[in-house]
Amino acid sequence: MSDSKSTDSETADLDTFRGETRAWLEANCPPEMRKPATSDADVFWGGRNTKLSSEPQRIWFERMRDKGWTVPDWPKEYGGGGLSAAEHKVLRAEMAKMGARPPLSSFGIWMLGPALLKYGNEAQKKEHLPKIAAGLIRWCQGYSEPNAGSDLASLQTRAEGDGDDFIITGSKIWTSYANYADWIFCLVRTDPAAKKHDGISFILFDMASKGVSTKPILLISGYSPFCETFFDGVRVPKSHVVGTVNRGWDVAKYLLQHERAMISGMGERGVGRPLGQIAADSVGTDAQGRLDDSMLRAEIAGFDVDEAALAACAERAVDLAKAGQAHPAFSSAMKYYGTELNKRRYEILMSAGGIDALEWESERSKQGARPRAWLRTKANSIEGGTSEVMLGIVAKRILDLPGA
Amino acid sequence: MALVLTEEQSMLRDSARGLISDKAPVSHLRHLRDSKDPAGFSKELWHAFAEMGFAGLLVPEEFGGSGLGFMEAGVVMEEIGRTLMPSPFLATSVVAASALNRGGNAAQKSDYLPKISNGSLLATLAVDEGAKHRPLQTSLRAVRAGNGFKLSGAKALVVDGHVADLLIVAARTAGSAGEREGLTLFLVNPAAKGVAVERTIMVDAHNAARIEFANVEVNADSVLGEVDQGATLLDGVLDIGRGAVAAEMVGLSDEVFNRTVEYLKSRKQFGKLIGEFQALQHRAAELYVDIEITRAATMKALQALGADVAKAASAVAVAKARACTTATRAVQEGVQMHGGMGMTDQFDIGFFMKRARVCEELFGDANYHTEQLARARGY
Ligand SMILES: Cc1cc2nc3c(=O)[nH]c(=O)nc-3n(C[C@H](O)[C@H](O)[C@H](O)COP(=O)(O)OP(=O)(O)OC[C@H]3O[C@@H](n4cnc5c(N)ncnc54)[C@H](O)[C@@H]3O)c2cc1C
Description:
The complex is a heterodimer of chains A (404) and B (379).
Chain A: H1 2-28, H2 55-67, H3 85-98, H4 107-119, H5 122-133, E1 139-142, E2 158-162, E3 165-176, E4 183-189, E5 200-206, E6 212-217, E7 226-237, E8 241-242, H6 248-264, H7 275-283, H8 294-322, H9 330-353, E9 359-361, H10 369-377, H11 387-398
Parallel strand pairs in A: 1-4
Antiparallel strand pairs in A: 2-3, 3-7, 4-5, 5-8, 6-7
Helix pairs in contact in A: 1-3, 4-5, 4-6, 6-9, 7-9, 8-9, 9-10, 9-11
Chain B: H1 7-23, H2 26-34, H3 43-51, H4 70-83, H5 89-103, H6 106-117, E1 123-126, E2 141-145, E3 148-159, E4 166-172, E5 183-188, E6 195-199, E7 201-202, E8 208-219, E9 223-224, H7 230-264, E10 268-269, E11 272-273, H8 278-307, H9 313-337, H10 349-361, H11 366-376
Parallel strand pairs in B: 1-4
Antiparallel strand pairs in B: 2-3, 3-8, 4-5, 5-9, 6-8, 10-11
Helix pairs in contact in B: 1-4, 4-7, 5-6, 5-7, 7-8, 7-9, 7-10, 8-9, 9-10, 9-11
Bound molecules: flavin-adenine dinucleotide (FAD).
Flavin-adenine dinucleotide sits between chains A (141-144, 149-150, 174-176, 226, 379, 382-386, 388-389, 392) and B (267, 269-270, 274, 277, 279-280, 336-337, 339-340, 343).
């Protein structure tokens, strides 16, 4: 009985929290920040080189930062909001309800932070986490190499010991925003003689270090968010290794789980209005208010079913994790489905938009915002591990299939 | 008729392929795009094309053309699809030439067809007004005035609109949007007073324009076909265009596929060629089947058009619907199987993805044609 009593009081506390949160958000989130960002330029990434693009963006970011709500579930001592998982869920739901966008987007928040919280030592946490929370340092991810994409563990960038330092030499590819980033979290080979997973370390360093250079790669969307990154004898203190030297693969994998969860949710922050309404703008509706294209209508309805089911599954995944029942590889299943679904969303958006969605350069098309976003989604099933690799992980780790 | 190319058709394919792959590989399109070429295509190449008899391929010999058929036009379109060469071939030599040939009176034919054949006149069909291809929704108005008409309204996605010397404009002389009766085709000089042409820079870096007509005066001689009875002529011309676009899509799908299979045979991960992974093998094999099915459906449609344009609608709907789904799949698989490489502009595959998307919208997407087929079959 006392159990149910404590649950009751928890529920009551949560209701109070919900009320307060809603009121605070209402009072503090500027109206301009209650719709999705329309382009990457409209997203605040933090760091030394990114500016806040508007006054509402600044207000929203600073108020959220001051509450620790750029990273609501991190401990307060590291700049977080100290919210419980349940409170965090309430906050997310309330933000979603009003359409509030994230105040800060950051690889530090999505990927490095969780890995540091689990594997970092106290000094590393104190040094890096508050700066991530406050948007002061922007991070990039140095994982992939030209010959180590899906087969990440075959990476060759090497770190050789020299007293208290490592000397890092090699190159990375597809490093998103390396040309804007302040620091990199990087996988390097510290023991070339060991089996491929056993000689890798996870290390952090400043992109301004001597010997680091970057070269942007132009994407099919016309943007160049990622780079080739070169390390020519970069000197990094050994104390910058996270976790144990040569045991970096554990950290890398843990971080990838978070990356995959983040990418699988990418569509949610997407387009704002429901697809059916967007389609009605271009194809019109019949006398009953139904989309005047029965095939497209069926396609969108099918999509809506799948999207609602995925949302439920995402919610359940959080609850399972909270209950300690989540399979560690489940993020691969979610990443696979979420990214394939997001690609479908943009295929439908393109066909709903018809000719209007084919314009690349014009005021009318906001410089081709829609087709560029469409092309960008094609990377969702590649970045952070391809769909094929995700399915392989599900087959092997969850289904325990032989030889998979 | 056998669904294989005849010896003559194979020779035509080889000569088209020779010229196109030599003079206009994908880097040609890339160059036009990056240099923001004002014409959007190479005039020099177009003249070489005309000299080889391609520009007048569908024009009867009496008007200086080579008097070939839709299969032959499809053969050329497929080669164009392989390198994505931008050229006036589709708009001028396939669609406009067919419109003039099928709907033109003696004077109109002898005025325009010889110039199309020798490559000196570029023409195009202006039909779509909304975001989606819905020809019967035409609402651009042509009202009688003096001995002619006055045109008012706007068109979007007019292929080669900004370089055309002659516009073939679908207009409404009677009835209202959605009705078959009351459509009329007009020949309009883009230099006429009241015509405003705006080039649209499209995702695929091919030519298209928005065109506005503000009380544009045309005389009675500029009617192509019969007043109010243009829908049938328009249907036929559009079906010819659809068959041709389907052939282009077969070419582009096949090319992306070949490039992808090559990559599967050369890229190594996990100490293996990625083509050794069954997860990719089965998809490559499925795509192969998809492309073969689409190729056959497209040949069938081109043959049906050759036999009787008026009876080819269902075969064309099947071909265009299939071509849209197959091309979408081919380019998506192409990007996916190339991994990060496939997302880079430096790599050609993105060009195929962008062109496939435009071909999909051009003259009706897969949904449109699937719906047409359902109607034709009475459900
Ligand atoms: C937009 C974008 C942003 C990125 N950002 C970053 C970043 O910030 N930092 C970073 O380090 N990396 C980044 N990446 C790189 C990304 O992680 C790799 O592209 C990805 O892991 C795939 O590697 P690859 O490109 O070498 O493809 P490959 O590994 O060569 O794959 C080619 C094809 O083979 C398939 N394949 C490979 N192995 C198997 C298998 N075992 N079974 C079945 N199929 C298989 C793949 O699924 C794919 O279809 C980014 C990529 C993109 C597209």
